[in-house]
Amino acid sequence: MDLSSRDSAIKFGMGRYRQASGLLEQLGDELSRFGNKALVIAGERSWGAVRDRLVPVFEESKIETSLVIWKGACCAEGARELSDRAAEIDAKQIIGIGGGKIIDLAKATAELGGVGATLIPTNVAQCAPGACTSVMYTPDGAKDVTWRYGHEVNGCYIDLDVIAQCPPRYLAAGIVDAMAKKIEILNGRPDLELVSTDIDLYTAYNLACYTYDVLDSRWQQAIEDNRAGRVTKALEDVVFAAVPVTGVISNTTRGYNQTQIAHVIYDGVRTLFTEEAKQSLHGEIVAVGLFCQLYFNGLEKEEDGLKNMLRSMEMPLTLSDLGIDPKEENLEALERYIAGSRHFNSEDPIARKRLHCAMLEMI
């Protein structure tokens, strides 16, 4: 089974999507439609955040569950182990409860087991719940490959009360990761024109512009509300833009070209500096990579605005903030990683020089 190849069909999102305050208690009918036996994969803290509210739902809906608290990486080995566990209990669905790692692992496990994935995110630090892909790692946490699926997940259910109680760091990371799509799709250009751009990418770009504008206008209030533990319209707006809408952006391009250099920097950091940046979130690494991406796009004048936003969010601004020494050999290693990726794809020495200069924007 080759899960890394590109599928020509577009899957726009999730089979079912709901977000609301008090949603966990309403999930009995939603979960029952996908089968009465489930392997539940959860992060330790995530399970603690939902256990008391969700266990009664399982019981009242007569859904038999087997719980696995997963502490390892989202890796092929883990997905195989868990799919075997699911087969042993004749699971009809895989329920993933947690952040991006658990969500991607649940999708991978479901794919190997030939059943559907049902997702209950406990933070919105990235758009993983809406993407028909899983970013896979080695057991040690280095970036491996991306698995791509020929179908959507069963459904995704976000309880806004859970999100409001999550540390604001996760919301901030998700906001920046979603806003990055507009900047990354340009990848070396200051703008896109329909006559010279594939319609799927052009559509994704315009959706990304819309998402960027929504998040740009709402992030400050949403972060403030999150810090206060309040569910508000601002929080609701930001979650909707950052997860399902950003998932549609990713899926419209079939998981290609909506992420570029800033996300390659993320991959490079996870691969080359696995231990140094172990405590950094996906969106935090992408945020630092955006300084490089903006310069490469010829939009360096927008870097000051990005810095101001990240400071207000208390997010990292430099490689040093991620725990990476910005010494010359580290910058060179990361630059080589980018230049060797499909996202750079240029033999032009001028473009390579621009990339070299762009790297310095992260120090």
Automatic annotation (TrEMBL):
Superkingdom, taxonomy of origin: Bacteria
Cofactor binding notes: Binds 1 zinc ion per subunit.
Biological source species: Parolsenella catena
E.C. designation(s): 1.1.1.6
Alphabetized SUPFAM superfamilies for the sequence: Dehydroquinate synthase-like
Listed name of the protein: Glycerol dehydrogenase
Residues holding glycerol: D177, H263, H282
Residues in Alcohol dehydrogenase iron-type/glycerol dehydrogenase GldA domain copies: 16-144
InterPro entries cross-referenced by the UniProt entry: ADH_Fe/GldA, Glycerol_DH
Pfam families, alphabetized: Fe-ADH
Cofactor(s) needed for function: Zn(2+)
Pathway(s) it belongs to: Polyol metabolism; glycerol fermentation; glycerone phosphate from glycerol (oxidative route): step 1/2
GO MF terms held by the record: glycerol dehydrogenase (NAD+) activity; metal ion binding
Keyword annotations from UniProtKB, A to Z: Metal-binding, NAD, Oxidoreductase, Zinc
Enzyme class, UniProt record, top EC level: oxidoreductase
PANTHER family linked: GLYCEROL DEHYDROGENASE (PTHR43616), GLYCEROL DEHYDROGENASE 1 (PTHR43616:SF5)
Binding, NAD(+): G100, K101, I102, I103, D104, Y137
Reactions listed under catalytic activity: glycerol + NAD(+) = dihydroxyacetone + NADH + H(+)
Listed Gene3D superfamilies: 3.40.50.1970, Dehydroquinate synthase-like - alpha domain (1.20.1090.10)
